[in-house]
Every structure is written in structure tokens, then in C-alpha cells.
Amino acid sequence: MEIIPATLRDLVALRRIEQACFPKDAWPLIDLVAVLSFPDVIRLKAIEDGQMVGFIAGDLRRTEGLGWIATVGILPGYRRRGFGRLLLLECERRMNTSRFRLCVRKENVEAIRLYETEGYVVTDTWNKYYSDGGDALVMEKYNHTADFV
Ligand SMILES: CC(C)(COP(=O)(O)OP(=O)(O)OC[C@H]1O[C@@H](n2cnc3c(N)ncnc32)[C@H](O)[C@@H]1OP(=O)(O)O)[C@@H](O)C(=O)NCCC(=O)NCCS
After folding, report:
1. Are 100 and 67 in contact (CB under 8 A)?
2. Is 130 exposed, middle or buried (0-12, 13-18, 19+ CB in 10 A)?
3. Average pLDDT of the residues in 130-141
4. Average pLDDT, the chain
5. What's the pLDDT tens digit per position in 71-82?
């Protein structure tokens, strides 16, 4: 298992992961290009069996002291093996900011459990946030180990 930065060369593999992970909300191609190329985005991939099996992106909003976890997904056949947690922790480490935030579907118990065990707490609910009318929980974590100034 390896966690390394992702690049535009990972576009096809990332599309496959997005579609497998988010059947209802997969990002359009243009958003995938953006997340693989915009500045101030930490983008990491998990490699196993010689292929990309997971991805995370963290949007660093320096002026707000905030790192926004924009997406995280692991291919179904590779879940529950620690990849999701490793990607999350490495993304947080590289963002090195005072607060992290994300939103998650209210019924996504797997992801919510992961975030809770890593110190995130629910701070808000956004009703009908998703295009199918699903509600989102906003979760946040304060980073007590950051070495920012
Ligand atoms: C959420 C997701 C990224 C977790 O990835 P993963 O690699 O399976 O997670 P890990 O193996 O690192 O598990 C970390 C913790 O998450 C929780 N968790 C993960 N899957 C779980 C499940 N099926 N049931 C309950 N808890 C679960 C557990 O607390 C687990 O810790 P443990 O194994 O020590 O009990 C993965 O399920 C996924 O890609 N889901 C689809 C995409 C998605 O919903 N992304 C989040 C959008 S906000």
C-alpha cells in the first residue's frame, strides 16, 4: 500500500473511483480536472495491487485557516482495509491548518463513523443539500498538532 500525490495523469482512474463511490453524485469530468490541477488543493491517491484504489482531495483555504475535505473514496473491493483513514490523516497532515471541515450524507454511516473516530463532530445540517434532496451533515475537527503560525 502506498499513499502518494495524484496528478492529471490519474484522471481516468479517478473517474472510475468517483463513479463507483458516488453513483448519485459523481463529479463531472470538469470538476475532476479541476481537483487534479488547481493550486491549494492537496490530492492524494492510494495505490494497491499496482492500481489506484482510493483518492482524497483537501481544499486549503489559508485565509480562513480551514482545510475542506472535498472528496474521499475507496473502490468497493478495497474498503475496510484502512485506506480511507490513511488518506484522511495524510491529507490533514499535509494541509497543516487549524481546522478541517467536510460534509457527508446524513445516512452515510460508514463515512460518518470514520470521521467521528478521527475527531470530527457535527456542527450543522444542510437540508436538501444534495441534488436528489438528501440532507448533509457538516462535520469539523480542530487540529491541535498543526505547526502553522
Ligand atoms: C467512507 C470510506 C472512504 C471509508 O473507507 P475505508 O477504506 O473503507 O475506511 P477504513 O478501512 O480506513 O475504515 C476506517 C473506519 O471507518 C469506519 N468504517 C468504515 N467502513 C465501515 C462500515 N462498513 N461500517 C462501519 N464503520 C465503518 C470504521 O470506524 C473504520 O475503523 P475500523 O475499521 O478500525 O473499525 C469508504 O467507505 C467509501 O469510499 N465510501 C464511498 C464514498 C464515500 O461515501 N465517501 C465519503 C464521502 S463524505
Report:
1. yes
2. middle
3. 96
4. 96
5. 999 999 999 999
Q: Whose CA is nearest to atom 16 of ligand 1?
A: 114
Spacing, Cα 21 to ligand 1 middle (Å):
12
**80 Cα–ligand 1 center, Å:** 6
Rounded-to-integer distance, Cα 34 and Cα 75, Å: 21
Q: Which atom of ligand 1 is nearest to the CA of 87?
A: 12
Atom of ligand 1 nearest to the CA of 117: 29
Could you tell me what percent of the chain has a pLDDT over 70? 97
> How far is residue 97's CA from residue 53's CA, in Å, rounded to a whole number?
26
The candidate with the shortest Cα–Cα distance to 46, out of 21, 75, 9, 70, is 75
Contact 83, 46 (CB under 8 A): yes
Phi/psi for 67 (5° steps) reads: -115, 120
Per-residue confidence (pLDDT) for residue 146, from 0 to 100 = 65
